[in-house]
Design goal:
This is Adenine DNA glycosylase. It catalyses: Hydrolyzes free adenine bases from 7,8-dihydro-8-oxoguanine:adenine mismatched double-stranded DNA, leaving an apurinic site. Its cofactor is [4Fe-4S] cluster. The chain is an alpha+beta fold. It has 2 domains: 213 residues, Hypothetical protein, domain 2 (Endonuclease III, domain 1, Orthogonal Bundle); 123 residues, Alpha-Beta Complex (Nucleoside Triphosphate Pyrophosphohydrolase), CATH 3.90.79. It has 16 helices and 7 strands. β6 and β7 form a beta hairpin. The longest helix has 16 residues. The N and C termini lie far apart (63 Å).
Length: 348
């Protein structure tokens, strides 16, 4: 189809020079695709370089401790991606002798690999003609064809995947897939797309109907939930503190945090020190002070965390303590990392 040829031609003139494009090694392509989900290339690139230096092969990643993987991932967010990455590396290394599956259908069976990632690996590494559909592809196709089906609806996901599959250049599927993704990222951008110099402008329905800003369509977002976090930062007489591994299936599983008291609303110092958790952790007298005078609001996709950090100086803590050098080695959420940077700079 003419669209595929135009996109590939544009790509060959404008493609970004990225390290994972210089190889067809499925390990590196897989790594880049997992990292770039919900992450801009500029943000993901340093992480890709750090990971490939620390773990040059899937065997190296498989042998690493989860804590080491999470520490290197720190700041990228969506930590389930890192845990799935580590799980799949161990499976490929130990069960498949380090050899990645070579088809879209087999790749889909790996943990953390969905339609998009399987399509990318299969087309780029193995030349299988399966179309990728990510945010960039949704945007290009919805504008070019004037499609207003919501891209985050069941109907939209099916419709766009089927359309994308009919358009793919079967002679060079990997090149075509990268072309349409780059075109969406660099040219047909969400804001201020470059319509005046667009090679597709004469056939673009959204441009003809002045609907560029209206497409693609998304269904309304899920309601954002507010949560109230009170982190207790113990400081012992030996200048040690407490970090705990976050358990369960919620946010930040496997990362470390200060002891946390979650409340239903913003709480006062008096309410905090009278709580059962506080009394259990600090059996003796303490001196407590609020580190951040204004609440820190940490925004995640479906929840906002209204956060206070309470520095608690004490002679006794009812749990294991650690020195600050050990604290720095632990993988922590960005919220904790920013506090540590501020606190340690202030104390030094």
């Amino acid at each position: 189809m003419i669209l595929a040829k135009q996109l590939v031609y544009w790509y060959l003139q404008n493609k970004r020079d990225l390290p994972w494009r210089k190889t067809k090694d499925p390990y590196r392509v897989w790594l880049s695709e997992i990292m770039l989900q919900q992450t801009r290339v500029a943000q993901g690139l340093p992480y890709f370089l750090k990971f490939t230096e620390a773990f040059p092969t899937v065997f190296d990643l498989a042998k690493a401790d989860e804590s080491e993987v999470l520490k290197l991932w720190q700041g990228l967010g969506y930590y389930s991606r890192a845990r799935n990455l580590h799980f799949t590396a161990k499976f490929v290394a130990n069960e498949l002798n380090g050899i990645f599956p070579k088809t879209y259908k087999e790749l889909l069976k790996l943990k953390g690999i969905g339609d998009y990632t399987a399509s990318a690996i299969a087309s780029i590494c193995y030349n299988e003609p399966v179309a990728v559909v990510d945010g960039n592809v949704y945007r290009v196709l919805s504008r070019f064809f004037g499609i207003d089906t919501p891209i985050n609806s069941t109907k939209g996901i099916k419709e766009f995947k089927e359309l994308a599959q009919t358009l793919i250049d079967t002679s060079q599927p990997g090149v075509y897939n990268q072309a349409i993704m780059d075109f969406g990222a660099l040219h047909c951008k969400p804001q201020n797309p470059m319509c005046s110099e667009c090679p597709l402008v004469n056939s673009c329905v959204a441009f003809a109907k002045s609907k560029i800003k209206e497409l693609p369509v998304k269904e309304k977002k899920i309601k954002v939930k507010k949560r109230y976090f009170n982190y207790l930062v113990p400081i012992t007489e030996e200048n040690e503190t407490v970090l705990e591994e976050r358990k369960g299936k919620g946010i930040w599983q496997g990362l470390y945090q200060f002891p946390l008291i979650e409340t239903q609303k913003i709480t006062s110092e008096e309410e905090l020190v009278e709580s059962e958790q506080f009394v259990k952790l600090f059996p003796n007298e303490t001196t407590i002070s609020l580190f951040n005078n204004e609440d820190i609001v940490h925004k995640l996709s479906h929840q906002h965390l209204v956060t206070k950090f309470w520095v608690v100086k004490t002679t006794d803590v009812n749990t294991r303590t650690m020195d600050w050098a050990t604290v720095k080695e632990r993988p922590v959420p960005v919220l904790i990392d920013k506090f540590l940077e501020e606190y340690l700079n202030k104390e030094s």
